[in-house]
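REQUEST FORM: STRUCTURE PREDICTION
Request ID: SP-0412
Submitted by: Lab K.M.
Chain count: 1
Length (residues): 321
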Amino acid sequence: MPETIKNHPSVDVIIPTYRPGPELRDLLLRLLRQTLAPGNIFIVNTEESAFDKTLVDGLPRVSICHIPKKAFDHGGTRQMALGFSRAVYVLFMTQDARPADKYLVERLLAAVSQPKVRIAYARQLPNASAGVIERYTRSFNYPETSRVKTLGDLPELGIKTFFCSNVAALYERAFLLAGGGFYVPSIFNEDMVFAGKALRSGAAIAYAADARVIHSHNYSARQQFRRNFDNGVSEALHPETFAGLPVAGEGKKLILSTLGYLARTGHLLWIPKLFVQSAAKMAGFYLGRHFHRLPGFMVRAFTDNRSFWEKDHEAEVRAWL
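STATUS: Completed
RESULT:
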């Protein structure tokens, strides 16, 4: 007997997009086939001229808002879209993530029903095309065991206490609004910055390992450098969340753990790639952390988000440090 699909008006989904392809329609279809299907799906698309309208043809409860590319902001765009929703919960997703099964929404809702939990994020599984290193990284960052995190976990988890991913994360909407929402402007890590604020307010965050999405990337060393540069910038701009945490230690732990995995499983030819990628990540992160010491042309050359530096707030960003 087929499972019943129920429209769940208490949950809306928000998806920022940029030049989406067929993966977006796959994502939307999977969301609409959930055992608890969302009440509304709001797409905030950058660059209207590149949006293929056939991706949403015939799909119910899907709304699209187009914004210019220069207006996109990791925090601000999601914050704007939050104003479209009147649901109790809002699920933020990215266009390249896909629910692994029909239970994503149901299991995230179960996770936020726990005492003090106001945010729940999903486990990320690798795509079929993911390389060996990327597959192991996903398992390292997204283990099989669920966990509820509070501020009391800082001594044990360090920076991972604040880890949360808007690739697939469910928020209690009123709590998100009451906490000021996502920081604007945000170059990266809008989810972790708010998570830090949430935990310091006494709330808890759930990692729901049984709520699963398929999401991974085969980034080049150059792409890793740029992403980690922006990550470093974000952490430099938000000492209230990241100051005093041993960030480098977590990165070294991942490198050593991956190296051990490659050696144990006989993937020795992947070790040089691991060293190259790790060097790119560390260099990007270090330079991002110290971006205020770099000339503007270097910042623009290193960033993965040039529009962040082209907005009127560049002087304000530099003044923060």
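NOTES: The CA atoms of residues 94 and 224 lie 19 Å apart.
Reviewed by: T.R.
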